[in-house]
Amino acid sequence: MNTTDAKRVLETALICAQQPLPVRDMGVLFNGAVSADTLKLLLEELQDDWTGRGVELVHVASGWRFQSRPQMREFLDRLHPEKPPRYTRATLETLAIIAYRQPVTRGDMEDIRGVTINSLILKQLEDRGWVEVIGHRETVGRPGLYATTRQFLDDLGIESLDQLPAMDTTAGQAAMLGQIEFGLNASADTDVRAAQDPAPQSADSPEDDVFAPANPNLADSTAAILPNA
Length: 229
Known about the structure:
The chain is mainly alpha-helical. It has 10 helices and 4 strands, in the order H-H-H-E-E-H-H-H-H-E-E-H-H-H. It has helices spanning 3-16, 23-29, 36-49, 73-76, 89-101, 106-113, 119-127, 150-156, 170-187, 218-222; strands at residues 55-60, 63-68, 131-136, 144-148. Strand 1 (55-60) and strand 2 form a beta hairpin. The termini are far apart.
């Protein structure tokens, strides 16, 4: 099989796949006759082939997939005018703490945020597949240690946590929460009901405390999330 035919096979499989495809699964397409290194080269060529189009080939945590470019969202949203689910600031800040400080316990998160965290927020994040308990801290009560998942990275469209925005500046803090909300809203249409925020308790802000990327005061409430703060 020549390069053109091999790329056509990969392209077709990736377009038809409902989930990101890892390189090892792509090898099955060729009965193992194409090495992993060769597949990666072909994928890089495919990325170049799609340059300048509304769709791009990206490498996320679970594998490779085609997705629309961010600048196309304005137009695609017109096909689905319903509003995406919104996430309260409490939910986004909790998720950001886990992403940047993992592994962390619920107590760690509460110390950083300075308020009691609604248990339904953590359940929501677990139900969405964005966080999971990966172990327990060897202390009184053996509290669970939370970390983000591959699904979280996939839904953000990134390959690793290193690609999250830097948090070393005020603008970086706002950008981080903005990227998280944008990426998760873009993926949430697969299960809107599961993405609804839990009913807030007195420890967290009321319904009107919904994150808006343009809020100039947002960074003030996220300063404590900074790594090594």
